[in-house]
Amino acid sequence: MSHPTRVRVLSVLTERVASPREIATKIGEPLNNVTYHVNQLRDLGCIELIRAEPVRGGRVTEHFYRSCRRSYFDESAWDELTEKERYGVISAILKMISEDIATAMAGGTFLQDGDAHASRSVLHVDDEGWGEVIKVIERATNELFVVEERVAARAAEGKPTPIHAKLDILQYRMPPRPAERGSAD
User: Are 11 and 70 within one domain?
Assistant: First the structure.
């Protein structure tokens, strides 16, 4: 799961059923590269084949997949990645966030109903506080997954159509401020 292309492929398949050709077009990667990563995700049990359709007069079969696992790295999974793999995953996620925001803004839905949220908070914490922040984010993320499960259950009962939404959470350390760098000397 640590390859950036796999992260992007799984993200597409979490949102909808798609073929490698459709995914390649969506993420701007060569079809053979996407097909390789789709096969890897299938072998890892992250996605499943939904259907196969003949195309080009029946000479070729196009396969359609969907995600059967969420692309989420909890703390233990994140700890298993090398620094290079972490940067690759973060880079893929930031690219998707940028694309999602641009799509929502261009589509006029980013501020629809006035309930979007964007915040940037500077925190000053020590090592213990940093650990607490990590735990709060993990708890919040897991609670949001539970909300999504309840929405899916209501949708299965024919309740109101779910809202297609994105939630992006970033947490990272900044380099020391100039005054902090000098105080350690």
Answer: yes
pTM equals: 0.70
95 and 122 assigned to the same domain: no
pLDDT at 31: 95
138 near 171, Cβ under 8 Å? no
4 and 88 part of one domain: yes
Q: What is the pLDDT of residues 43-80, one digit of tens each?
A: 988 899 999 999 888 888 999 999 987 767 777 778 88
Would the pLDDT of 37 be above 80? yes
Q: Read off the DSSP letter of residue 112.
A: G
**Angle made by CA atoms 139, 90, 73, in degrees to the nearest 5:** 35
- Nearest 5°: the CA angle 161, 167, 168 is 160
> How far is residue 152's CA from residue 90's CA, in Å, rounded to a whole number?
28
Residue 69 near residue 11 (C-beta atoms within 8 A): no
Domain count, the chain: 2
